[in-house]
Automatic annotation (TrEMBL):
Gene3D superfamilies: 2.40.160.120, 3.30.70.3490. This is Oxysterol-binding protein. One of its GO terms (molecular function) is cholesterol binding. The gene is Osbpl2. Residues 403-437 form a coiled coil. Belongs to the OSBP family. Keywords: Coiled coil, Lipid transport, Lipid-binding, Transport. One of its GO terms (cellular component) is plasma membrane.
Length: 474
C-alpha cells in the first residue's frame, strides 16, 4: 500500500490463488476523458515545439476493489512477517515501486528553483518544499505498487523537465530500492536508497522509511540529506482506506549547517491535524530564520518567526483572525508565480504576509478511475515506439504482469505475477545450491559521504547501454 513494499513475497505459501479468484466488473471510463493523444500502440505524439506529449490516460480503467476484503487475506497471516504475505493483484496499481520512487521528480521545478537562488535560506525553502512534494503524490493512492524483482530497473529521461533517472532493486530480503538522478544541465544530483520497515497494527499498516535521501546542488557546492516521514494506511479491515504521513523530517545542509525541521502531524482524535506540516529553518547557531506551515496534500507556505508567533497569540486570544480559506486572489497577491498554479481551493489557515513555496498539481479529471494517478504517474509505464530496443531487459516497462494489469487483463496479470515470483524463487534456490552470491549491476553498497551512514551508491555506466550481462528476470 502507498509507499509500502514487502507484501508480495517469493516465500508465499500459495494459500491464496489470485489467478483463480473471481475478478469484479470493470468500471466504466468516461469516453470523453480518455483521449490518449490520438496515437495508438504506444506511439507518442510530437508537439510542434518538438517536445514529446505524454499520454493522458491509461489504456484501461482500474477494477473495482469493492468485492475484495483485505482482512480475508490478512487474518490468515497474523503473527507472520508482512514480507511473507502475498496480496491479490486487485489491490495493486499498475506501477512498480521503482516507478513510484520516480514520482519524487514530479516537482523537479523546485530543485531548479533551489539551483537558481543566490540566498542559502531561499535554497533551503525550495529544498524543503521539494521534500514535502515528494510524498504528495501518495495522497489518496491506496493501491499497492508491485514489489520489484531482484535486479529489476527503471530508467526515465525527461528532456522537457531536464533530468534523467535510474533505479535498481538491490536487495529482496530486506527489500531495498536504490536510485540516482541527475540534471541534464549538470546542475544537481539526487540519490538515495529506500528500505521501508512494515508493521501491521490490526486496523492499519505502517511503513517506516529507512535509508537516506541526498540532494546535491553542484553550482553551490551544497548537499542536503533527509529521510521521509512514516506512511500509514488506515481501515485495512473495514471502511474506506485512507492514508496519513507523520513523523519528523530533518533536512540538513551539510555545507552551511542550516537545518530544516518539518513535523508531519498525526491526524489526532477529531482529525484537526490531518495532513498538517509545520516546521522551521534554523542556522548553525540554532537561530530560527523562518517558519514553514501547510499540508502535504495541498500547499506549503513560509513566514518569518515573529509574524508567526504574533499570529498564533492573537489566534489563541480569539482575535480578528479566524480560519480563512485561501482564494486565488490571495495567492496572486502573495506569489508572483501564481499564474502557473492550478485552481485548487486550499484549507490551510493562511497567515498574512506568507510566501507560497509549493502547491500540489491538479490531477487529471479521470484520476479516480486511474488509481488516483497524477498526470506524471500516468506517463511512467508508457512504452513508446522503439523504446524496447534501447531499454535494459530488466526495465519495469517490460514486466508482463504490470503491462497486462495496465491493459485490463487481470487474469493474465495474476498468472504472470505468480510465474515471475516462482522464477525468482527458483533462481534464488539455484544460487544457494551453487553458493553463488547475487551481484547488483548499477549500484554498490558504500558510505554516504555526508552522513557517514551505510548507503547504496550509483556505480555509473547505465546510460552507456551495455546491457549484455543483465539478469533474465522476466
Amino acid at each position: 500500500y502507498g509507499f509500502c513494499t514487502g507484501f508480495d513475497s517469493d516465500n508465499s505459501s500459495g494459500d491464496f490463488s489470485e489467478a483463480n479468484h473471481k475478478v469484479p466488473e470493470m468500471l466504466d471510463l468516461d469516453p470523453h476523458q480518455s483521449n490518449r493523444t490520438g496515437k495508438h500502440n504506444g506511439e507518442t505524439e510530437i508537439q510542434e515545439n518538438g517536445i514529446k506529449r505524454h499520454r493522458t490516460s491509461l489504456p484501461a480503467p482500474m477494477f473495482s476493489r469493492s468485492d475484495f476484503s483485505v482482512w480475508s487475506i490478512l487474518k490468515k497471516c497474523i503473527g507472520l512477517e508482512l514480507s511473507k504475505i502475498t496480496m491479490p493483484i486487485v489491490f495493486n496499481e499498475p506501477l512498480s515501486f521503482l516507478q513510484r520512487i520516480t514520482e519524487y521528480m514530479e516537482h523537479i521545478y523546485l530543485i531548479n528553483k533551489a539551483c537558481s537562488h543566490a540566498d542559502p535560506l531561499e535554497r533551503m525553502q525550495a529544498v524543503a518544499a521539494f521534500a514535502v512534494s515528494a510524498v504528495a503524490s501518495q495522497w489518496e493512492r491506496t493501491g499497492k505498487p508491485f514489489n520489484p524483482l531482484l535486479g529489476e530497473t527503471y530508467e526515465l529521461t525527461r528532456e522537457d523537465l531536464g533530468f534523467r533517472f535510474i533505479s535498481e532493486q538491490v536487495s529482496h530480503h530486506p527489500p531495498i530500492s536504490a536510485f540516482y538522478s541527475e540534471g541534464l544541465n549538470k546542475d544537481f544530483i539526487f540519490h538515495g536508497s529506500i528500505y521501508p520497515k512494515l508493521k501491521f497494527w490490526g486496523k492499519s499498516i505502517e511503513a517506516e522509511p529507512r535509508g537516506t535521501i541526498t540532494l546535491e546542488l553542484l553550482k553551490h557546492n551544497e548537499a542536503y540529506t533527509w529521510t521521509n516521514p512514516t506512511c500509514c494506511v488506515h481501515n485495512v479491515i473495514i471502511g474506506k482506506l485512507w492514508l496519513e504521513q507523520y513523523g519528523t523530517v530533518e533536512i540538513v545542509n551539510h555545507s552551511t549547517g542550516d537545518k530544516c525541521v518539518l513535523n508531519f502531524k498525526p491526524c489526532g482524535l477529531f482529525g484537526k491535524e490531518l495532513h498538517r506540516v509545520e516546521g522551521y529553518i534554523q542556522d548553525k547557531h540554532r537561530k530560527k530564520l523562518c517558519v514553514i506551515y501547510g499540508k502535504w496534500t495541498e500547499c506549503l507556505w513560509c513566514t518569518d518567526p515573529t509574524t508567526y508567533e504574533t499570529y498564533k497569540k492573537s489566534e489563541k486570544r480569539g482575535g480578528e483572525q479566524k480560519k480563512k480559506l485561501v482564494s486565488e486572489d490571495d495567492i496572486k497577491s502573495e506569489n508572483d508565480e501564481a499564474d502557473d498554479m492550478p485552481e485548487i481551493q486550499d484549507t490551510v489557515q493562511f497567515i498574512p504576509g506568507s510566501k507560497l513555496l509549493w502547491r500540489i498539481n491538479c490531477r487529471p479529471p479521470n484520476s479516480s478511475q486511474m488509481y488516483n494517478f497524477t498526470s506524471f504517474a500516468v506517463s511512467l509505464n508508457e512504452l513508446e515506439k522503439g523504446m524496447e530496443a534501447i531499454l535494459a531487459p530488466t526495465d519495469c516497462r517490460l514486466r508482463p504482469d504490470i503491462r497486462n494489469m495496465e491493459n485490463g487483463n487481470m487474469d493474465v496479470a495474476s498468472k504472470e505475477k505468480e510465474r515471475l515470483e516462482e522464477k525468482q524463487r527458483a533462481a534464488r534456490k539455484e544460487r544457494a545450491k551453487d553458493e553463488v552470491e547475487w551481484h547488483t549491476r548499477w549500484f554498490h553498497q558504500g558510505t554516504n559521504p555526508y552522513t557517514g551512514t551505510s548507503d547504496w551508491l550509483y556505480s555509473g555506466g547505465y546510460f552507456d547501454r551495455n546491457f549484455s550481462d543483465c539478469p533474465d528476470i522476466y
